[in-house]
Amino acid sequence: MIFDSYEAYRAANFSPKVCILGSGPAGTTIARKLGAAGIPVVVMEAGPREFSDESQDFYRGSTVGDFYFDLDITRLRFMGGSSNHWAGWCRVLDKQDFEPRAWVPDTGWPIRRTDIEPYLPEVRDILDLPALRPDMPISDDIRWVQLIKSPAVRFAEKFGDELDKATNIAVVLNTCATELAGDGKRVTGARLWSNGQDAGSFSADYFIVCTGGLENSRLLLWSNQRSNGGVVPNAMALGRYWMEHPTFEGGNAILANYNAFEVDAVNEAFFSPTLTAMERLQIMNFGIRLIETPYPGVKSLIADLACTAPDMAEWMSSKLSQRLRCAAQLYVAWEQAPLASNQIELSKTDVDHAGVPRIELHWKKSELEHRTLLEGLRLFGKTLIEKDLGRVRIADWISNGQDYPTDDETAGHHHMGGTRMGTDISKSVVDANCKVHGMDNLYVGGSSVFCTSGQCNPTTTITALACRLGEHLSKVVTA
Ligand SMILES: Cc1cc2nc3c(=O)[nH]c(=O)nc-3n(C[C@H](O)[C@H](O)[C@H](O)COP(=O)(O)OP(=O)(O)OC[C@H]3O[C@@H](n4cnc5c(N)ncnc54)[C@H](O)[C@@H]3O)c2cc1C
């Protein structure tokens, strides 16, 4: 059942046991799992069915620190969430992303990759993915990895009919939770705002916050402030350890053989370091995206020349009335160190239409990250030489330690951390089952629970964690 307002939903007299906030990939996946287990569930979705400026305005905020996207541009507030414009790149976090690494402080999850692997067949169905292939080492230092370009499932489009027909799932559009109330043990209710006005409070046995990797922290910070610590009783880490995947063009490459790696439909192949290499160089995980621009015959020679002698290549290609780029570009996206100082705070001056303080995001890349970028490119270059596969030219701004450019990709629109998973309550917000420490009926879904970011896009792992949480809750709720 899908309702356009809280008023319409109330008239239907549906009695849910579980309330999920947010209908993005995390919320929709958990709702479908609970629905399939016969548990009545309501999904409160802040936005309408389609994009609206009015709804999107709730996402405005500010950033302090490094250059970042506007906060109302980097996510979408309507049914299906940011799956409405995600690019569809899919990969699960690496095994080593879950492990503690002595050279990167505050790493290590309370679960292992094997804890989410049983859900991968389900994730493949949900995200329309082909079979996953194992990574292939090309040296002791570098792995050739798979990053799948999927059809980018729009969750509202793919699952809208199913949700509408479901008798034990209700989706309530245009209805957001402005705050949760709690007594330090349980969430006792949610304050709702529907179609531009206060809609009173709502209660359910369980609440699952799936409002996205920025908004989860915002909602919980505000709820905690209003309830005097009654919603997140151990809030030392709330909003902290926020992470992205910084992404920049790192240089280019001349390849000896353009058939050495199988490229995908858009001529791309992906490479990451081995754990041994990361440990030896004391760096973090990274992903190098090699984009081939294969040219035939003499054009290929000129494109290769563009890597080493750009002026000469430009002159020669102008003679051919062509603009040839260096034959392979290298983009690097990397793991960001979990730092308590990278955090979501509530603005002291700016509120949204419902009176909730907007986000002030504090975000800065660290020295370890610059080292990861530089050493990562050097390592990839060394591997290409050793294996006689080609040569790498690292961009000058990286080799010279200059500032990050502000006209490049910047980051992945991947919002991770803020309510991270852990056992130490001073450094985490949820436990291994995504339950808020100290609370009996409050859970969190989405990448805000990530302890570390790894190097790959997050939604495949978000969906796997959501399947796992859905299954766990099915047992808890029926117990
Ligand atoms: C341009 C772009 C490209 C991307 N490309 C990729 C990619 O290729 N691969 C990848 O893995 N990831 C990608 N992502 C990230 C991906 O979109 C997110 O990881 C994913 O959507 C997160 O799912 P979620 O359910 O946690 O949150 P969201 O998708 O953000 O959904 C949250 C939902 O909660 C609702 N909501 C918000 N506040 C409230 C409230 N208070 N009460 C009730 N409801 C609320 C919102 O309206 C929204 O529907 C991309 C993102 C962007 C912006």
What's a concise summary of this model?
The chain is α/β, with parallel strands linked by helices and 479 residues long.
Notes on the structure:
The structure is a single chain. With 479 residues, the chain is of the alpha/beta class. It has a domain at 2-90 and 110-129 and 153-241 and 418-478: FAD/NAD(P)-binding domain, CATH 3.50.50. 26% of the residues lie in helices and 24% in strands. The chain has 12 helices and 23 strands. It has helices at 6-11, 25-36, 53-56, 120-127, 155-165, 215-226, 275-281, 297-308, 310-319, 367-386, 396-399, 459-478; strands spanning 2-3, 18-21, 41-44, 61-65, 89-90, 136-137, 142-145, 148-149, 169-172, 175-182, 187-194, 197-202, 206-209, 240-243, 247-255, 268-273, 286-292, 328-334, 343-351, 357-363, 390-394, 416-418, 442-444. The strands form 6 sheets. The protein has a 7-stranded antiparallel sheet with strand order 6-7-16-17-18-15-21, with helices on both faces. Helix 8 (297-308) runs antiparallel to helix 9 (310-319). It starts with a strand and ends with a helix. 49% of the residues are buried. The model has no long low-confidence stretch (mean pLDDT 93). Bound molecules: flavin-adenine dinucleotide (FAD). Flavin-adenine dinucleotide binds next to helix 2, strand 10, helix 6 and helix 12.
Topology at a glance:
Layout: E1 2-3, H1 6-11, E2 18-21, H2 25-36, E3 41-44, H3 53-56, E4 61-65, E5 89-90, H4 120-127, E6 136-137, E7 142-145, E8 148-149, H5 155-165, E9 169-172, E10 175-182, E11 187-194, E12 197-202, E13 206-209, H6 215-226, E14 240-243, E15 247-255, E16 268-273, H7 275-281, E17 286-292, H8 297-308, H9 310-319, E18 328-334, E19 343-351, E20 357-363, H10 367-386, E21 390-394, H11 396-399, E22 416-418, E23 442-444, H12 459-478
Parallel strand pairs: 1-9, 2-3, 2-13, 3-9, 4-20, 13-23
Antiparallel strand pairs: 5-8, 6-7, 7-16, 10-11, 11-12, 14-22, 15-18, 15-21, 16-17, 17-18, 19-20
The protein binds flavin-adenine dinucleotide.
Flavin-adenine dinucleotide (FAD) binds near residues 44 and 74.
